[in-house]
């Protein structure tokens, strides 16, 4: 007899992240193809390009609900991010785009989400937060890094909780829920 899995008790692989705008994804993919050989590593699909804020790991339904409630209480202004740095972490096999000078709002949001996750029992790496967009995985051989990153900017107006789903030999990142970041534009005073 096969027992059905109750969705409320199964674990999901979750993380908080910033989505990249579609236009930026369409800019990064050809730039990556022009600047790296095919054997550099496994390229991340355009739709999966994102900037992770806090990795949560395998999370129960109950814990996910708590984390979502906590995320919904965050009140922070949006910010601009410039992807002007590039690097390779050979030990983890990651080639990435990042920020030379991350905006304070990005660092604060990541710290808040990571702290909430840790308090909820989700392991958080002791390594400092290094905001980046993973371009390749499995890049374990030496790779020539381009002298210049694409230097593209985008506005972070919301952050999302994602689920990593592996089906048919592919990984997809699906948005579970998103929360807006407050506008920094001043509204005119009422008359």
Automatic annotation (TrEMBL):
Q: Where is the signal peptide?
A: none
What are the alphabetically sorted keywords of the record?
A: Hydrolase, Ligase
* SUPFAM superfamilies to which the protein is assigned, alphabetical: LigT-like
Q: What is the top EC class of this enzyme, as a single word?
A: hydrolase
Q: Which domain of life is it from?
A: Bacteria
Stated name of the protein: RNA 2',3'-cyclic phosphodiesterase
Any one GO molecular function term: ligase activity
Cross-referenced NCBIfam families: 2_5_ligase, PRK15124.1
Q: Which family does it belong to?
A: Belongs to the 2H phosphoesterase superfamily. ThpR family.
Q: Which reaction does it catalyse?
A: a 3'-end 2',3'-cyclophospho-ribonucleotide-RNA + H2O = a 3'-end 2'-phospho-ribonucleotide-RNA + H(+)
Enumerate the transmembrane spans.
Answer: none
Q: Record's InterPro entries?
A: Cyclic_Pdiesterase (IPR009097), RNA_CPDase (IPR004175)
| Record-listed E.C. numbers | 3.1.4.58
Q: What residues form the catalytic site here? A: 50 (proton donor), 132 (proton acceptor)
PANTHER family given in the database record: RNA 2',3'-CYCLIC PHOSPHODIESTERASE
Q: What does this protein do?
A: Hydrolyzes RNA 2',3'-cyclic phosphodiester to an RNA 2'-phosphomonoester.
Pinpoint motif HXTX 2 by residue range: 132-135
Please tell me which stretches of this chain the record labels as motif HXTX 1: 50-53
């Amino acid at each position: 007899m096969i027992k059905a899995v109750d969705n409320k008790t199964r674990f999901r692989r979750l993380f908080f992240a910033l989505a990249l705008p579609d236009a930026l994804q369409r800019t990064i993919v050809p730039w990556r193809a022009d600047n790296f050989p095919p054997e550099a590593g496994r390229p991340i699909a355009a739709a999966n390009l994102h900037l992770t804020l806090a990795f949560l790991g395998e999370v129960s339904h109950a814990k996910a609900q708590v984390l979502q409630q906590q995320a919904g209480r965050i009140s922070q202004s949006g910010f601009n991010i410039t992807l002007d740095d590039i690097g390779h972490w050979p030990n983890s096999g990651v080639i990435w785009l990042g920020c030379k000078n991350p905006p304070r709002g990005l660092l604060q949001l990541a710290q808040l989400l990571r702290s909430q996750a840790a308090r909820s029992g989700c392991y958080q790496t002791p390594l400092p937060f290094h905001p980046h967009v993973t371009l390749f995985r499995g890049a374990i051989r030496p790779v020539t890094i381009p002298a210049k990153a694409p230097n593209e900017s985008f506005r972070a107006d919301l952050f999302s909780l994602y689920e990593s789903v592996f089906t048919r030999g592919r990984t997809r990142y699906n948005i579970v829920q998103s929360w807006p970041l407050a506008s920094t534009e001043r509204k005119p005073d009422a008359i």
